[in-house]
Specification:
Number of strands: 4
Structural class: alpha/beta
Largest sheet: 4 strands, parallel
CATH class: Alpha Beta
Oligomer: single chain
Number of helices: 5
Shape: globular
Order of helices and strands: HEHEHEHEH
CATH architecture: 3-Layer(aba) Sandwich
Radius of gyration: 14 Å
Strand order of the largest sheet: 2-1-3-4
Distance between the termini: 38 Å
CATH superfamily: Resolvase, N-terminal catalytic domain
CATH topology: Rossmann fold
Strand content: 15-25%
Helix content: 25-40%
């Protein structure tokens, strides 16, 4: 073997960082900034390369209706990433709509993409969703 990885190996080490945060707070942008910083540290610590940071403003409960999440799906379908990094489960869908989060998690898995949570307590527990 010549030591060169396959294109699948390379895609596995590529990640998209999805940030969905409320920008209407007293300190607009702070939550998004923290989520992005946390995601970058998470990726660096695990040898992942973030190819794109995709953002949405929090509010629409169905991720499939958000332009940012639609971009995550496009990258997934194109085989451009092996992992999707998200701060915590409610960035995908609110607690009141877990079926939407589970739908998207399954969809990613069916396309060979791993979803990982970057928030320290979830990351310490493995960082992967439990469906």
């Amino acid at each position: 073997m010549n030591g060169a990885g396959t294109s699948q190996d390379k895609a596995t080490a590529l990640a998209v960082l999805y940030v969905c945060a409320d920008r209407g707070t007293l300190m607009p942008g702070l939550a998004a900034q923290r989520a992005e910083e946390e995601g970058r540290v998470f990726a660096q610590d695990r040898g992942l390369t973030i190819t794109e940071v995709v953002t949405d403003e929090y509010g629409e409960p169905d991720p499939a209706r958000r332009t940012g999440w639609q971009r995550v799906r496009e990258l997934t379908q194109a085989g451009a990433v092996g992992e999707v990094l998200v701060r915590w489960p409610t960035a995908i869908a609110p607690e009141s709509a877990p079926e939407l989060r589970h739908r998207e998690t399954r969809w990613l898995q069916e396309h060979g993409v791993r979803l990982r949570y970057t928030w320290a307590p979830l990351a310490a527990a493995g960082g992967e969703p439990r469906c």
